[in-house]
Amino acid sequence: MRTVTIKSEKEIERMREAGKRLARVHEKLKESIRPGVSTKEIDRVCEELIRGCGCTPNFLHYQGYPASVCVSVNDEVVHGIPSVDRFLKEGDIVSLDTGLIYQGYHADAARTYGVGKISPEAEKLIEVTKESFFQGIEEATAGRYLYDISNAIADYVIPYGYGIVHDLVGHGIGRNLHEPPEIPNFPQRRRGLKLRAGMTLAIEPMINIGTGEVEWMDDDWTVVTADHSLSAHYENTVLITDGRPEILTLL
Fold first, then answer.
1. Does the 9-241 domain belong in CATH 1.10.3720.10?
2. Where residue 183 falls among pLDDT bands split at 50, 70, 90?
3. Which of 104, 110, 124, 210 has a Cα-to-Cα distance from 20 of 20 to 30 A?
4. Largest alpha-carbon pair distance within the chain?
5. Every domain of the chain and the residues it spans
């Protein structure tokens, strides 16, 4: 197993800048969400925003992925491939998961939005998924343990009766998009590794209204809920410190 890297001050500064730029991309990108827009158009805007801020899209061609942003609609959990034939409609929910590279360092973040007026059930799912992230990072402090984060997320979500995806997890991040450790969003019996200042983690709850079980579509990328219930996704790149964690991908 590869070692979890501790970032130097110089590396942290580059990751901070990468995170700030990605946060700005997300702020602009959400303006493109409206009924009638194609998911391919969202991808075009995303790539333009990333390149326009002097960065490189890190999803584009990653292990063959064909776009700069994953656009996942309704029962699509993650990795939805943008298409000229897929259009958002009133009442949909859509997650936008994207990242960039700045001076050799990666940032990764995801948001879920409603398209126009959405159902109260969908609003609640989005709200709980986002809040579960913030519950998780209450435990993301040097000296605590990795699975304290996992258990805090799960403890918040489970009372709502939602399904937590087990087949997909968060991850370390830095010079590579995916680094150790894996970060589950579901309960763990063990403590996992001890958190140290300088670790950078992509923490990303993926929560379904129904079952936590998922399936892969024939494109080998798009992951959907097994019961076709709605799914939401929220993610930020986080720096572990001796005090409160620093969320690098929020303005």
1. no
2. very high
3. 124
4. 49
5. 9-241
Residues 6+ positions from 108 with CB-CB distance below 8 Å: 22, 58, 97, 98, 99, 173, 177, 202, 204, 235, 237, 249
First and final CA of the chain: distance in angstroms?
34
pLDDT digits (tens, 9 = 90+) for 109-135: 999 999 999 999 999 999 999 999 999
How many CB atoms are located within 10 Å of the residue 7 CB?
19
Report the predicted TM-score, pTM, of the whole model to 2 decimal places: 0.97
For the chain, what percent of residues have pLDDT higher than 90? 99
Answer yes or no: are the C-beta atoms of 19 and 237 closer than 8 Å. Answer: yes
The Cα–Cα gap between 193 and 144 comes to: 9
d(CA 78, CA 72): 6
Q: Coil, helix or strand for 225? A: strand
Q: How far apart are the C-alpha atoms of 137 and 238, rounded to whole Å?
A: 8
Cα separation, 59 vs 80, in Å, equals 12
Listed residue (20, 155, 151, 28) closest to 96, CA to CA:
28
What is the torsional sign of CA 116, 232, 39, 250?
Answer: positive
Closest CA to 47 of 66, 67, 32, 65: 67
